Amino acid sequence: MSKQQLAVERARKAFRTGRSKPLEYRITQLKNLLRLFEERQKDIADALKKDLNKSPNGVPLYETLGLEGEIQTAVKQLKEWAAPRPAAKTLLTLSDEVYIHPEPLGVVLIIGAWNYPWAVTIQPLIGAIAAGNAAVIKPSEVCVHTAKVMEDVLPLYIDKELYPVVSGGVPETQELLKQRFDHIFYTGNCAVGRIIMEAASKHLTPVTLELGGKSPCYIDKNCDLSVACRRITWGKYTNCGQTCIAPDYILCDPSIQDKVIEEIGKNVKDFYSENPKTCPDYGRIINQRHFKRVMALTEDSTVALGGEGDEDDCYIAPTVLRDVKPEAKVMQEEIFGPLLPIITVEGVDQAIDFINDREKPLALYVFSPDPKLIKRVRDETTSGGFCANDCLMHFSVNALPFGGVGNSGMGAYHGKHSFDQLSHLRGCLVKQLKMEGMNNMRYPPHTPDKLGWARFFILKEGTVTKTFKMAALAMLVVLAAAIIQRFFA
Fold first, then answer.
1. Measured between alpha carbons, how far is residue 325 from residues 214, 322, 397 in Å?
2. In angstroms, what CA-CA distances link 313 with 91, 203, 266, 271, 286?
3. Active centre residues (catalytic)
4. Overall pTM surpassing 0.85 (yes/no)
């Protein structure tokens, strides 16, 4: 038996004991996970510095603070999330119990990504624990040091049988995918997403795929470019551009292209100094393979800002490409690096057409002071998430579902959405062994009279329900009048 199969079987055996189901146990595990982030910040930061050159002060901001907030929300609201949810009744179910009962799915496989290895691996784990599941955690092997920290410290804080960490590369992941799970949660790229989905189909396992794509950013020529470009600069170059919802390219009027480049240049200097290579807050490309891939994307475009690279250091400067053609290399795949192409369009009509001619992105950004223009871009396009006049920030709102659509993924999570995504929302009907006469309309022999009654109860239920409410209200009014007359006459 392989190590991967053994981990899955142990997790399933632990789940079948039922210990993950009581809310008290789930809350204890979540609080232990919260304690991990309080006590192991240095271990987490040291590993991320080695893997992605993330600064110690940046790690909480982009990796762990959101997780701490997510855990606190789950602990506070878990009782409400897990409670039976009343469902609307009809005339046929007036005397019955009708409700939705959230229950655990079973054993969930969580395959994390390397760009934000804690955030995108642990956030679905929080949902899995809150929903009462067992979960097999597969951190990305690309972040070697971070994966080792996860493997070492997670079992010290949470149940190591219910939530085992399985490390390794492609062969280990392939072996995991041969096992039967009750849900698979994957964050990464489209190519691997297809492999995950194919493997899951063999067991009819549902999947959540958090993928990516080329997230567009339309800038209205009438907006405040200094503010817009400051927010875009931050959203694009954070984590050296290795963010699945980073603005992938800009669409703007030709008349503002030079100003956009100028403003982005100013903000690069403000954020990362005259020499970003020496700035502790500017990251690195994850490895030399990705360095070569990103640098090759600039070959047929004009560099307006940056463009420098150091393969030995995996450093690529914050870069802007101007007058980019739709057929350019940089427009054929998700960049996932610090390159920002600008494509000029003649107004919002052309921008909307450009976006709709391509795959549905994970995020879509629009900068404009005009609410009508913002609404129009929202209504005439499709994307996983939508954010106006800022970048990335919709990810931080755990009341909003986060996920893709079409080529950018399926399923959504964050906050209660994570709980629901990793629960089975079981429809429940509990009837009384009484009022059997009501059931005669459904029993053979079928007659026109029975059909008439069925038609009345099923097709007229909305009208009849309103009538019942009005009748009940009228009865209350009559009762109140009688009481008043008796005691105050």
1. 15, 9, 35
2. 71, 43, 25, 20, 10
3. 210, 244
4. yes
